[in-house]
Please model this.
Amino acid sequence: MHDVTADPEMREAFRSWNERLASLCMAQPDPAQGPGAHVYTNIEAELFAPQAEAVKESFWDMLRAPENRGLVLMVLAAKVLLLTWVLYLFL
Model:
Protein backbone atom coordinates (compact mmCIF):
# COMPACT_ATOMS: atom_id res chain seq x y z
CA MET A 1 0.00 0.00 0.00
CA HIS A 2 1.29 3.44 -0.89
CA ASP A 3 2.11 6.00 1.73
CA VAL A 4 -0.12 8.99 0.98
CA THR A 5 2.20 11.46 2.68
CA ALA A 6 5.25 10.40 0.62
CA ASP A 7 3.72 10.19 -2.86
CA PRO A 8 2.45 13.54 -4.25
CA GLU A 9 0.31 11.80 -6.91
CA MET A 10 -1.40 9.66 -4.28
CA ARG A 11 -1.85 12.69 -2.04
CA GLU A 12 -3.61 14.56 -4.88
CA ALA A 13 -5.82 11.54 -5.67
CA PHE A 14 -6.71 11.18 -1.99
CA ARG A 15 -7.58 14.87 -1.74
CA SER A 16 -9.80 14.83 -4.85
CA TRP A 17 -11.65 11.68 -3.74
CA ASN A 18 -12.07 13.08 -0.26
CA GLU A 19 -13.66 16.24 -1.68
CA ARG A 20 -15.99 14.24 -3.95
CA LEU A 21 -17.18 11.98 -1.18
CA ALA A 22 -17.62 14.88 1.24
CA SER A 23 -19.77 16.73 -1.30
CA LEU A 24 -21.94 13.61 -1.72
CA CYS A 25 -22.46 13.36 2.03
CA MET A 26 -23.44 17.01 2.26
CA ALA A 27 -25.89 16.74 -0.66
CA GLN A 28 -28.31 14.46 1.22
CA PRO A 29 -31.94 15.67 1.36
CA ASP A 30 -33.45 16.85 4.61
CA PRO A 31 -34.91 13.80 6.43
CA ALA A 32 -37.64 15.91 8.03
CA GLN A 33 -38.99 16.79 4.59
CA GLY A 34 -39.83 13.16 3.70
CA PRO A 35 -40.55 11.65 0.31
CA GLY A 36 -42.88 13.25 -2.18
CA ALA A 37 -46.54 12.35 -2.62
CA HIS A 38 -45.77 10.40 -5.79
CA VAL A 39 -43.81 7.87 -3.73
CA TYR A 40 -46.84 7.02 -1.58
CA THR A 41 -49.05 6.87 -4.67
CA ASN A 42 -46.71 4.41 -6.36
CA ILE A 43 -46.46 2.25 -3.24
CA GLU A 44 -50.23 2.09 -2.84
CA ALA A 45 -50.67 1.28 -6.53
CA GLU A 46 -48.17 -1.57 -6.24
CA LEU A 47 -49.59 -3.00 -3.01
CA PHE A 48 -53.31 -2.61 -3.54
CA ALA A 49 -53.72 -2.94 -7.31
CA PRO A 50 -56.27 -5.54 -8.39
CA GLN A 51 -54.59 -8.84 -9.08
CA ALA A 52 -54.96 -10.56 -12.43
CA GLU A 53 -56.85 -13.83 -12.39
CA ALA A 54 -54.52 -16.77 -12.02
CA VAL A 55 -54.74 -19.22 -14.88
CA LYS A 56 -55.36 -22.69 -13.53
CA GLU A 57 -53.05 -25.23 -15.10
CA SER A 58 -54.27 -28.69 -15.84
CA PHE A 59 -52.67 -31.73 -14.25
CA TRP A 60 -51.07 -32.74 -17.55
CA ASP A 61 -49.57 -29.30 -18.04
CA MET A 62 -47.97 -29.53 -14.59
CA LEU A 63 -46.52 -32.95 -15.42
CA ARG A 64 -44.99 -31.66 -18.65
CA ALA A 65 -43.49 -28.58 -17.02
CA PRO A 66 -39.67 -28.58 -17.21
CA GLU A 67 -39.25 -27.95 -13.48
CA ASN A 68 -41.16 -31.17 -12.69
CA ARG A 69 -39.24 -33.51 -15.01
CA GLY A 70 -36.97 -34.85 -12.26
CA LEU A 71 -39.92 -35.65 -10.02
CA VAL A 72 -41.81 -37.34 -12.84
CA LEU A 73 -38.77 -39.46 -13.72
CA MET A 74 -38.28 -40.49 -10.09
CA VAL A 75 -41.93 -41.52 -9.75
CA LEU A 76 -41.75 -43.43 -13.03
CA ALA A 77 -38.58 -45.24 -11.90
CA ALA A 78 -40.21 -46.13 -8.55
CA LYS A 79 -43.24 -47.55 -10.35
CA VAL A 80 -41.06 -49.63 -12.65
CA LEU A 81 -39.09 -50.98 -9.67
CA LEU A 82 -42.27 -51.77 -7.76
CA LEU A 83 -43.81 -53.54 -10.77
CA THR A 84 -40.60 -55.52 -11.28
CA TRP A 85 -40.55 -56.55 -7.62
CA VAL A 86 -44.23 -57.60 -7.65
CA LEU A 87 -43.73 -59.63 -10.84
CA TYR A 88 -40.64 -61.28 -9.33
CA LEU A 89 -42.61 -62.28 -6.23
CA PHE A 90 -45.58 -63.80 -8.02
CA LEU A 91 -44.08 -65.29 -11.17
User: Anything to note?
Assistant: The mean pLDDT is 85.
